[in-house]
Amino acid sequence: MQANGDVPSTVDDRKAHLQWRLEELRVIRAGTLSRLVAAMTVDQSGELDSNHVNILLATYRNFTMPNNLLTEIINRYDLLI
Questions:
Q1: In which domain, by residue range, is 59 found?
Q2: Which of 65, 56, 6, 68 is nearest to 31 (CA)?
Q3: pTM to 2 decimals?
Q4: What is the C-alpha separation between 5 and 54, in angstroms, rounded?
Q5: How many CA atoms lie within 13 A of 72 on its CB side?
Q6: Which tens digit of pLDDT belongs to each residue from 18-59?
Q7: Count of domains observed in the chain
Q8: What are all long-range contacts of 59-65, with beta carbons under 8 Å and residues at least 24 apart?
Q9: Distance of CA 62 to CAs 37, 66, 69, 80, Å?
């Protein structure tokens, strides 16, 4: 903090950048099971998006059975290989 109580411009710039990054997040509201599983993977490398994985694993029992989810995950990774 500067002597006059103002915050240096670099701190303001970082806050503005963080605000922009928060608005950049993808929101999934609905989808088929196969599309939800596909959304878990970031790209063709098969790397997982931890936000989507956590949400899917916390909510899947509302719309499918565990064996259906496992089958879709296996099918997804078979496509990526």
A1: 29-80
A2: 56
A3: 0.60
A4: 42
A5: 19
A6: 555 555 566 778 889 998 888 887 666 667 778 788 888 999
A7: 1
A8: 63/33, 64/33
A9: 15, 11, 12, 27
